[in-house]
Amino acid sequence: MAEKKYVSVSQVLENDISGSKRLIAYEFLSTKGKEEFKDCKTQYDRVKKIKELIDNGKDIDEYADNQEIDKTADQMILTGYPNPINWFHIVHETFQKPIESFYFWSLNSMGDLGYSRIIKVTDIFAASEASTMYGVTAQRLGLAQDKVAQYLATIGRLVKDLFQIVREIRIIKERLAYYKDAASDDSKKRNPAEIALKGMYVDLVEGGTKNPSSVLGLGSQVGFTPLPDLFFSVHPKTVEDISRLTSGDKWQFNAKLTEVLQRKLYQYVQWRDATKNELETREKHTLKYLRQHYDSIQLYLTWVKPYLKHIKRLTTQQTKSDSPHLVTAFESANIELEVIGTQMPKENSKYFICLLLNMKYRTTPTMSFQQDFQRGPIHMGYLDIMWRGYIWSQEDINRYLKMRDDENFELLSTINESIRDAMESLGDDLREYLSEAKEVFPEKIELKEGEKKEEDAISLKGLTEPFKGAFEIVKPVFGIKDAQTKKKGEQRARDETEKKNAFFGTFLLTYTASKLFKKANRFITW
């Protein structure tokens, strides 16, 4: 059995508060880490390497590009975030002003500073169990959970029915193979297929030896003994062939036996052609039904995804519930919000100026009636806000988003994986049948003048393969440049140039965002 190529990072976290293992798994590496993990091409390889280093007693933190800050005097802590170009940190506490306004002001300010795209990364909370806010969210959570339970039950039933449909199509195709071979011009295929079909006809349609008027039943009577042998040896393709094959100078059987044989062959040919058409029609409709069934599963998965996300967001985060600042009997809540703003410098085409805004709230929510007499919480209390500036490509942004998504949301991937495993257990037949149901036919490719066929290209490749190693050896001798290496070098140079172009903008905009926030809220600035 092939080794599974994906391992969840949570399997190796082991309550790693610093997040170094997670950063390494998603290729946020220090200089030492890049050297240590240079041979690891996939996340699976990096996670495996992390386990090996831990087993050997190595300190994982030195391999991660993990930001270290001085939380208090002479006390350095790892934040679990990649090292930024620069960063700014503010802590504020107020019980006179709702602190939601700080988030929306910061969001609007990012747009004014030129961050054209803003991505929400994290939106999680935890409320104390005895608080009013917990009771309101628990009601909404229960409604979403009930809906998800209904959808997942329907998906399970549809997947179970899918096995029956695929099995039915397999049986139909197996039966149609008899008819296909019976219509073949090759006697080696036609004769066994005809004998098999005639056996089915005699057993299922005529009732075998239990029916006195069947082929086998008549064969037991005097004068009709050769009938079964003749019936299974004469193979007419059409009704017109029956008279030709059962008459002539070489035919030496009496007229009565010939008459009964012709009648039986005529009935068989009519049954064979009718059942073939019926099976072909049934196959066509069953394939369409399979496609419809498969699309229904995908549709229910699409419907259930938003509810799963809502459940994940409405569910209290265990790490925040364990915080000493969250007391069960008090009206208290912990909230974390995180967004990324990106903008592309004019000279660049790959690397963005990125601002990562992280807000952590520790609040006392006050439930009040708002518009339409709906009760909602107003949060006042403690705010911890941090701005971090990065120079990231789209690939870096995607890796960071995936890292945070893996940290906050694994339920949907588990469900998708279980359904995918169930469908993969059906083998290649499911993919083949779905392809047939789509009725997509490959277009015929016309070769232009001067083009070679693919087979010729493959054969030429095979001829030159033994000389490939020798060519690699003599390349340095003749001074032939490796085009691929040269291209990689040029790409590295362009990347370094773009990073230099984005450095000043990243540094300045991160500083400006924090300074404008201080001025707008009348904080001390310098």
Walkthrough of the structure:
The protein is elongated and about 120 Å long. Strand 5 and strand 6 (351-363) form a beta hairpin. It is built from 18 helices and 9 strands. By secondary structure, it is an alpha+beta fold.
Main β-sheet: number of strands, strand sense, barrel status?
5 strands, antiparallel
Based on secondary structure, the structural category is: alpha+beta
Share of β-strand residues: 15-25%
Count of strand segments: 9
- Physical arrangement of strands within the biggest beta sheet: 3-9-6-5-4
Poorly predicted runs of 5 or more residues: 1-7, 439-478
Q: Which descriptors would you attach to this protein?
A:
alpha+beta, 3 domains, five-stranded antiparallel β-sheet, 18 helices, 56% helix, elongated, disordered N terminus
Structure described in brief:
With 526 residues, the chain is α+β, with helices and mostly antiparallel strands.
Describe the secondary-structure layout.
Layout: H1 10-13, H2 20-25, H3 31-36, H4 43-55, E1 66-72, E2 75-82, E3 87-94, H5 100-112, E4 117-127, H6 132-182, H7 187-205, H8 215-219, H9 227-233, H10 240-245, H11 255-314, H12 318-321, E5 333-343, E6 351-363, E7 366-369, E8 375-378, E9 381-393, H13 394-408, H14 411-424, H15 428-438, H16 454-464, H17 468-478, H18 483-520
Antiparallel strand pairs: 1-2, 3-9, 4-5, 5-6, 6-9, 7-8
Helix pairs in contact: 6-7, 6-11, 11-15
